[in-house]
Design a protein that fits this description.
- The chain has 381 residues and is mostly beta strands.
- The chain folds into two domains: 190 residues, Porin (Beta Barrel), CATH 2.40.160.20; 173 residues, Porin.
- The chain contains two helices and 20 strands.
- The chain has a 20-stranded antiparallel β-sheet that branches.
- Helix 1 runs antiparallel to helix 2.
């Protein structure tokens, strides 16, 4: 009767080191596919299509305790095609790769690391211009490439034997000039032999947050501001993005709720402009296991109305957007009253209608697969 608790304790102690032992490997990446179609009656009934692709893959292995060797590749593709006499088509391609090595330090579920490597990229841009006066088209092509060393530092918190949360930053300048942080998830493959022997005896860890009858409340909020002065003229910009939400578990692991997305921005300069968007987004979500770390799938319907005001004119409606999203991700049941979620997959379709005399319409379709998601936190009571 005491064998399972003993082996579980051994596994917890072993995982404090086994995450960075030889035989383990890390993966992360992003994939984004978008198609935008803009159509209207002016000029002359035009249509513009703009497909876009972005991807990145990072993979590495631990060659010995706490020493990690990795490879990263990334690419982008964008094309703008005007199905009329609008005189501009564009195409952009980018590819890059890098190799790096890291040293990890730490114990328990926490690790910090430092390392560096070398990377390169190749960019190609093509622009096709139509000259109405001569009825001729001309092409402009630009190609750029770069190769540079870089340094990186970061930290990882391992959620279990497979998933971890990572924060990192890179610098291409020596000694070090880091300009921003990137947060995301990593997925581990491989196991050490001692892990495999103990894993089969490990009991699942169950959280109670997703039981029927419980309520959730949460919100995301981001505020930003910027000021600058050019030629003795001051410019100021502020923006706010918020989405309060409430939900109810109608059955075990099945959540139904609604969020209120709000965006606001204000620009003060030669003129003062204010843009506001308000919407509602009912959603449903199904959690697919009973462990603390559990995948989920869901769907969201969104409607939003956008208005614009420029002093001293009256406020006017600019557009409204309706759409739906199928999504999926990972949720972690933190303690007894919190759920932390990482949205990893989005498949969305939406239509935006402009309220003006041009009768323009914008359709958006997109697929996004990422390990660098926006994290949300919900309180359960």
């Amino acid at each position: 009767m005491k064998i399972a608790p003993f082996l579980f304790g051994c596994l917890v102690a072993h995982l404090t080191f086994a995450q960075t032992e030889p035989g383990r490997a890390l993966w992360s990446g992003n994939l984004q596919l978008n198609t935008t179609q803009l159509a209207g009656e002016y000029p002359n009934g035009y249509t513009r299509r703009s497909p876009q692709l972005n991807f990145s893959v990072n993979h590495g292995v631990f060659i010995q305790n706490n020493w990690f060797v990795g490879l990263a590749v990334n690419g982008s593709y964008y094309k703008q095609v005007n199905m009329s006499t609008i005189p501009l088509n564009q195409e952009y391609r980018r590819g890059g790769a890098s190799a790096f090595i890291r040293k990890y330090w730490g114990a328990n579920n926490w690790r910090i690391y430092a390392g560096g490597g070398i990377g390169g990229s190749l960019d190609q841009y093509k622009q096709e211009v139509f000259e109405a006066s001569t009825s001729m088209r001309s092409e402009n092509r630009t190609k750029t490439y770069s190769v540079s060393p870089f340094t990186q530092i970061g930290g990882v918190y391992f959620l279990d034997g497979r998933w971890g949360m990572e924060v990192s930053t890179n610098s291409t300048i020596f000694p070090f000039t880091f300009s921003g942080l990137t947060a995301g998830l990593i997925y581990m493959t491989g196991r050490t032999r001692s892990e495999r022997e103990i894993q089969s005896f490990t009991p699942p860890t169950v959280g109670s947050q997703a039981r029927a009858g419980r309520f959730t409340v949460g919100a995301s909020i981001v505020f930003s501001g910027r000021t600058e002065e050019v030629n003795h003229r001051s410019f100021e910009a502020q923006s706010l993005i918020a989405a309060p939400a409430v939900g109810f578990f109608v059955a075990n692991n099945f959540l139904v709720g609604i969020s209120i997305p709000i965006t606001w921005s204000k620009n003060i300069g030669t003129n003062t402009t204010t843009e506001t968007s308000l919407g509602f987004a009912p959603y449903l979500r199904a959690y697919l296991s009973n462990t603390r770390l559990r995948p989920y799938v869901g769907a969201t319907f969104t409607y939003a109305s956008n208005s614009f005001k420029q002093d001293p004119f009256e406020r006017e409606k600019v557009n409204h957007t309706a759409g739906g999203t199928l999504n999926g991700g990972l949720a972690y049941l933190l303690g007894k009253n919190f759920i932390v979620e990482a949205n990893l997959l989005n498949l969305n379709v939406s239509k935006q209608t402009q309220n003006n005399l041009l009768k323009n319409g914008l359709r958006l379709q997109g697929l996004q697969l990422t390990t660098s998601p926006a994290f949300t936190l919900q309180y359960v009571f």
